[in-house]
Amino acid sequence: MSKEYIGKIQENRRHYASRHGYTTFFPNVTDYNFGDSPRSWALIPALRHALTVHPHSTYFFALSPHALIMNPSINLRSHILDKKKLESLMLKDKPVVPPDSVIKTFTNLKGDRIGLVLTQDGEGLCQGSFILKRGEWAKFFLDTWFDPLYRSYNFQKAEGHALEHIVQWHPTILTKLALVPQRLLNSYSVDISSRGGKDVMYKDGEFVVRLVGCELDQNRNCEKEFEPYYEKWKRSIEKGV
Fold first, then answer.
1. What is the enclosing helix (H) or strand (E) of 179?
2. Residue 60: what pLDDT?
3. Is 95 left (phi over 0), alpha (psi -120 to 50) or beta?
């Protein structure tokens, strides 16, 4: 990623954080040791680092660098995290990994007991945009996810498949999980039929647009795809949206 691209990403995050009284954390992949595993695994120690650096923060919003907060007026607490709101949004009795995982989300969870808010697309769980709640459970979850055994498995989707594994086979994790509708946190910029197609593509007014998979496709350019969304966001904040 170019310095200009990184600067625009950070500008977007700082603007949103300052508007709502949040703070930001910008980790560097080189700060973490994950051996020969793919760089994407850095997400997990970065979150553990954020928990340490910001000991008084309750919620941590992890967002891929290849994404843009498009509607800065949306407050995460009222949008998702309020107890009653979250309970109304939770996808209950839903296969954790689509389309037909035998492991399903619980039907009777309370909003104030949730530790992890995730979305899923047509292929599986989405770790490019999610919310983690501080606590001993969060540390346990991150340590389990980053277990060297899982990193040694060479999962096809690296930490993504590891996440799906632990959510399905560790009841302690499933009991703290809330799946919410994808477009609340994770609208896509492109039409990928296997991941939901046009039904999950970004529409004006939605919270986040994510350039899903742009860094993995040689026929795509993340920075070029980012630019029109960035320009649209800039125009909106100049108008005071």
1. strand 177-179
2. 98
3. beta
